[in-house]
Design a protein that fits this description.
This protein is α+β, with helices and mostly antiparallel strands and 101 residues long. It is built from three helices and five strands, in the order H-E-E-H-E-E-H-E. The chain has a five-stranded mixed sheet, covered by helices on one side. Helix 2 packs across helix 3. The longest helix is centred in the middle third of the chain and has 15 residues. The chain is elongated. The structure holds zinc ion.
């Protein structure tokens, strides 16, 4: 029995799920969340692995704000969606892959 993909049911050599997954991961979403005491945080979602740590550092430096990263998201203090996007573009991320919501 050939190796079948559990997701699409096609044989592994025809399956493109891995590629689709990678494309999806490249999507970066930027949005704000309101925290306690009317404080905003800007959330950058969609980065993985080492990239998230590196990018979190860069964003904090470039935006001159505090921030944290965990579980695949970066949280930056303040409402900085546009600045965060500009910084990501400067870091080499494609404009198409960044969604501000
Ligand atoms: Zn598949």
């Amino acid at each position: 029995m050939p190796d079948m993909c559990p997701k699409c049911g096609l044989p592994k050599e025809l399956c493109v799920c891995d590629i689709l997954d990678r494309e999806t991961l490249k999507k970066i979403r930027i949005y704000t969340e309101k925290k306690k005491f009317r404080k905003y945080v800007t959330v950058v979602e969609g980065l993985t692995g080492d990239e998230i740590e590196r990018t979190a550092k860069e964003l904090k430096t470039r935006l001159a704000v505090g921030g944290t990263f965990k579980n695949g998201i970066i949280e930056l203090q303040g409402n900085n969606k546009d600045k965060a996007k500009k910084a990501l573009l400067a870091l080499g991320y494609a404009e198409d892959s960044i969604d501000i919501t």
